[in-house]
Write a structure and sequence with these properties.
CATH superfamily of the domain at 57-208: Vaccinia Virus protein VP39
Order of helices and strands: HHEEHEHEHEEHEEE
Radius of gyration: 16 Å
CATH class of the domain at 57-208: Alpha Beta
Number of helices: 6
Bound molecules: S-adenosyl-L-homocysteine
Largest sheet: 7 strands, mixed
Structural class: alpha/beta
CATH architecture of the domain at 57-208: 3-Layer(aba) Sandwich
Strand content: 25-35%
Helix content: 25-40%
């Protein structure tokens, strides 16, 4: 990339922060700082790098998508993160959302079902020096019991219902943010709080569109 190209991306990143995030109500300063820090162009194909900061999702390998920046910010803010939280993401994809999370909390665990995406995300993190993200290849509808309980769990693919293993792996006081819908195409973004061992509170946040969550407790 030329110096001019890099300057352009810096400008577009600022437009994303100001117009697409702050302009639409994202207020969490840790989320805004994280999205200012992570070079989104590194998470998409070189040929679409110039579109990396556009207000839309973009295609990645395996027929999947990297979410629209606003949705990444909105979901991250909805997790109400604290620095020492243990976070699980389901659906690593490009690794962008995990990278944003990793600038806010000490360790991020992320599960991806497609090997090709898990591997390229690992390479990206290595190249960028993001050492606090651990990726597991497998079915994220089963969570990742080895590191549970989690203070926050975010699912970046649309589920037919909330997978029970994720509820079990949520710490008391923990928050789960997940798109849920009865069709594969449109979902409601849901936040579930575990307020006590056997008490969960569910809120509906907004309408969203995600690729399907495929697995034992998914589609
Ligand atoms: N967070 C990603 C967005 C990824 S799109 C990013 O920032 O780029 C959703 C991802 O979920 C896809 O990569 C898809 O392969 C993955 N996925 C779908 N079902 C899954 C499952 N059961 N377990 C883990 N990953 C899954």
């Amino acid at each position: 990339m030329t110096a001019q190209g890099l300057e352009m991306l810096d400008y577009l990143r600022e437009v994303m922060i100001r117009e697409h995030l702050q302009g639409r109500g994202i207020r969490d300063t840790a989320v805004l700082a994280a999205m200012r820090e992570v070079p989104r162009e590194e998470f998409v194909d070189e040929r679409v790098a110039a579109k990396a900061y556009g207000d839309h999702p973009l295609p990645i390998a395996g027929g999947q998508t990297i979410s629209q920046p606003y949705i990444v910010a909105y979901m991250t803010e909805a997790l109400e993160l604290k620095h020492n939280d243990r976070v699980l993401e389901i659906g690593t994809g490009s690794g962008y959302a995990a990278a944003v999370l990793s600038r806010i909390v000490t360790t991020v665990y992320s599960v991806e079902r497609l090997d090709v995406l898990a591997q390229s995300a690992r390479q990206r993190f290595e190249r960028l020096g993001y050492t606090n993200i651990v990726i597991h290849e497998g079915d994220g509808t089963l969570g990742w019991p080895d590191h549970a309980p989690y203070d926050a769990i975010v699912v970046t693919a649309g589920a037919p219902r909330v997978p029970p293993p994720l509820l079990e792996q949520l710490a008391t006081g923990g928050r789960l943010v997940i798109p849920v819908g009865s069709s594969c195409e449109v979902q409601s973004l849901i936040r579930v709080r575990r307020v006590a061992e056997h008490d969960y509170r569910r809120e509906e946040l907004c309408g969203v569109r995600f690729v399907p969550l495929i697995g034992a407790a998914g589609w």
